[in-house]
Amino acid sequence: MADPSQLTQHIESYVDSSRPPTQQASSLDAIVSLLTNDAVTIGSLVKEMEMYLTITDDILRARGILLLGEALNRLSSKPLDNATTHSLITFFTERLADWRALRGALVGCLALMRRKSGGVVASIDAKAVAKSYLQNLQVQSLAQHDRKVCFELLECLLEHYPGAAASLGEDLIYGICEAIDGEKDPQCLMLAFHIVEVLMQLFPDPCGPISNFAGDLFGILGCYFPIHFTHPKAEDIDVRRDDLSRALMLAFSSTPLFEPFAVPLLLEKLSSSLPSAKVDSLKYLSCCTLKFGADRIAKHAGAIWSSLKDAIYSSGEELMPSFNSEPIDNSDSQKNEIAVEALALLEKVIVQNNDLFLSMIIGDEDVNVIFNNITSYKSYNEISLQSKQKLHMVGHILYVSAKASVSSCNRVFESFFPRLMEVLVLSVEKTSGACQSIESCVNSKQFNYGSLYLCTELLGACRDLFAASESLSSQFISANETCCRLLQCYSTSLTRTFSSILATCTSGPTHDEDMYLGVKGLQILATFPGGYLLLSKLTFDDILMTFISIITVDFNKTLLWKHVLKALAYIGSFIHASNEFEKASYMEIVVDKIILLASSADYDMPWPLKQTAISSISTSGQKYMLKIVLWMEEAIHANLSEFYVEGHLKSAEIIIQLFECYSNELLPWIQKNEGFEEALLQFVVNIWNQIENCMAFCIWVHEKELIDATMKFMKLAVACCSVERQNIIIHKAYSVLSSSTSLLLKESWSDIPVQWERFEPIQETDKFSTRDEWILSLFASVIIALRPQTHIPNTRIVLHILITALLKGYITAAQALGSLLNKLDLKSNGTGISGSCTLEEAIDIIFSTNLLSYFENGPFGGCGRTSNGDEISSSNLFPFAPNNELLQINVIVGLAWIGKGLLMRGHEKAKNITMVFLKCLLDCGIGTLPLKQGSSENSFKQDVHQSVMKASADAFQILMSDSELSLNRKFHAIIRPLYKQRFFSSLMPILQPLITEADSSFSRSMLYRAFAHVISDIPLIVVLNDAKKLIPLLLEGLALLCKYVLDKDVMYGLLLVLSGILTDKNGKEAVVENAHIIIKCLIELVAYPHMMLVRETAIQCLVAMSELPHTRIYPLRIQVLQAMSKALDDPKRAVRQEAVRCRQAWASIASRSLHF
């Protein structure tokens, strides 16, 4: 048991109102902890607190009762015996009459009544709580928090003790009305609306006690509609307007007794000028329609129909189809929320009262006026705007009416479809499907826009109705349904009519509205569920032939071509789950034709359009994709053979196009869908087999572009495969690599370091042969795309080959080395496989080649001496001839990718590589690099060529930038969080003094170039943390780099960083401190002649500077305005526009006029 004095201290600390809130909260926590651990019982706590629970001092009594209530609230899961529960609930019930201690009593009652086990409040006690609540509480006179607890207690009573609550009858209903009337707080209103909803469920009998209060209750609720919520308090951010509106909607629809009050109110609000009120009214009506029932809604049928028609018509042009937009579907015109909700409500009331509402729609005057005048709506452009709005209103109404149910579809079709067919001059066909048109050819003068539009709406509704109903599959659709019989009669004629429209569009001037309806009509007919029950095979095939003809011939009609291609893709995706006959027709007519189109040179269609067609059709179904993938594989293999052996340039072009299509269009879809890994594996392996079997390659100018396209595909395809399939691919690739005798692969390579003398001097003739270059490039691509779990055979030999390749200038080999080091295991997996190695062993192999040497001392924890103890110099960094500039650059690029792989996984050796780059950037004795200095330092400075220094500076771009070619998430790289930020923090203390003390202008410019690469790829928040230190460096870098034309892109990156600092509030202090030098630098950049983006961004930065304190920027006002006057004559319009903005911003700083 706990020390009684300790418990007393905690109690006294809590009830003492003069104590800090934190101390009171700590005391409560301590008491709850004692109770939880059974160091104190509830009984002993009550006995210890007896004085505070009954004392006459209002403050102490209130604090004491609140302490007991809060303690019970925190102990909801601790079991209590029934006697204790009864005693406690009785005490708190009596305290509800003590208004000075009301909060504690409410908290205690609520805590006990919410208990679900281990001491549940009895029904008789709950009823006593309710009686005391109704007798003693005036809820609306309380503070917000107390009102909220009151509503929570009332909600708990109704939900957990419905029997006890219902026994109170009218007293309970009256008390609830009184409690919620006039409530304004959002949190309390959420509870109040829910209380009304639960109350109506408690008294479901329409003749019960609730019937006498229905009008009063709705009178209280109705005042809140529509919800207008602008509550600014931070504690209410969890209560949104939509939440309040939904809670009120559920209360509105909670009982049919609200029907006489709710429906008229909601219909009245439909005439509101506020769009949100209209939308809410329609949503509430939809909810009430389902809850009130058909009989009650039927009383308001006329008013509902009239209001819905007005709401749909008032949507105006929003309901009109977008003829020049690319998508074709039945939802393309439902952009207006009011129209969407109105049509949704119309569908609900039709389903509920089919005959009643359909009779009103069919007999409606506006609907019949449209049909009576339909013959006058021949051309879309000749129809008045008002008539267009009414026509499209009727179209949407008919669509919703026909889609509601089979019976409604039959009635709508029976009433309107024959009239439309009569206007279109179509005859009834025989069931055999033979077309007996009145005229053998339909010419363009007979096209009637109005009837075609309404016809497509009815067809779309019928199609969507059948598609949405699982019971209406092909074998269950009754041919005796009116809509089915009518469609069977007219389907062939309709197909020919829509096809004639498209024929007119292809043979002459295109009318977008005719083209739209022609494509949409054929698409709907081709996607009817039920297959050939509604559409014959011949008609279905005719539709596909019409579309594919446009794809292959009329590609110069861009909009029509895009509409038709999307329609074909939609048809393919729709019938992919249909019967085999339709899929066979689609495969034969569409897929095979697309393959022929892509592979044949007889078509004049540009390749980008062919690629789009291949992508759209293949991604509409797995079987189509598989067939196109197999064709593409055959085409690539055939053309590769021709290119390898005979060097056909045309074959190279075709391969490049096919690989681009595969990589950019097909692989992203394949990656998201299952079932293609085996096909990908076979494709990749076959490419390796083909290379293995071809021993002699021709050399052509397209080779580099072709290798790049093949490598891109190889990386993306391998990256999509699982570890098991990647193991198969890498072993196959390695076997091909091993078979190349010219690469001199020998097992002894694993123990022999690369001999530098072999690459001195390096010449173009030292490059690999064409075949070896293909093998090496593709092998490196496979390495780049592997997952970390994939095993690489003979890793040591692979490392030596890649090092050899990078020294010859193969960047892909360098990327593969970086990727390999990024993914190698830190420790041996214990398999004992010959040739495998860990990360540390791989690093040792690379260092043993003298690409990089070990260092012992320095700011990064070891930099200055090689592993042999010698000082770093040209003799050990570049032990080959010092004038071999090309080889030095290759080494630097290789080290950059190796360093990137290590840096991304957070390996410490990346720091050593960084120090090599900094060493190369110093071409004069500045004595600031924290390396041991000596005579070898001077020789190093003489050895390093300027181009090597530039390569060293650009190595920082490789280290920091996100690459699409290697070391990214797509290729499964290991990426340590915040690795860029850590690198930046460790590098800047070294780089900054090097820049400051550099006495050579070229070395200084290269150091700034490296600085620009680093800072441009760092998140802005990191830069803002050191803005005061970095802004001077940024400005000096801009001033220096602007002198070199070749540095314009690097300078633009620096300027973007400066722009980010200027426009972020966290950088304001540093900007104000350096305002003068920033403005002067920006003025110089306004006239930068080599890049428009630099000038434009500099002016935008000056606009941001105009918002700084007046005293800091006013002295430079005249200089800025003079610079803007010159910028107004800039040849680029974007710069002139920004100059006008800047001039206005700076001119408004003072009230005086512009005088220069």
TrEMBL record:
Pfam families linked to this entry: MMS19_C, MMS19_N
Compartments where found: Nucleus
Keyword DNA repair: yes
Protein's organism: Hevea brasiliensis
Stored Gene3D superfamilies: Leucine-rich Repeat Variant (1.25.10.10)
Record-stated family: Belongs to the MET18/MMS19 family.
Keywords per UniProt: DNA damage, DNA repair, Nucleus, Repeat
UniProt protein name: MMS19 nucleotide excision repair protein
Summary of the function given for this chain in its UniProt record: Key component of the cytosolic iron-sulfur protein assembly (CIA) complex, a multiprotein complex that mediates the incorporation of iron-sulfur cluster into apoproteins specifically involved in DNA metabolism and genomic integrity. In the CIA complex, MMS19 acts as an adapter between early-acting CIA components and a subset of cellular target iron-sulfur proteins.
Residue intervals of the MMS19 N-terminal domain: 46-313
Signal peptide (residue range): none
InterPro entries linked to this entry: ARM-like, ARM-type_fold, MMS19, MMS19_C, MMS19_N
Chain ranges of the MMS19 C-terminal domain: 676-1105
Domain of life according to the entry: Eukaryota
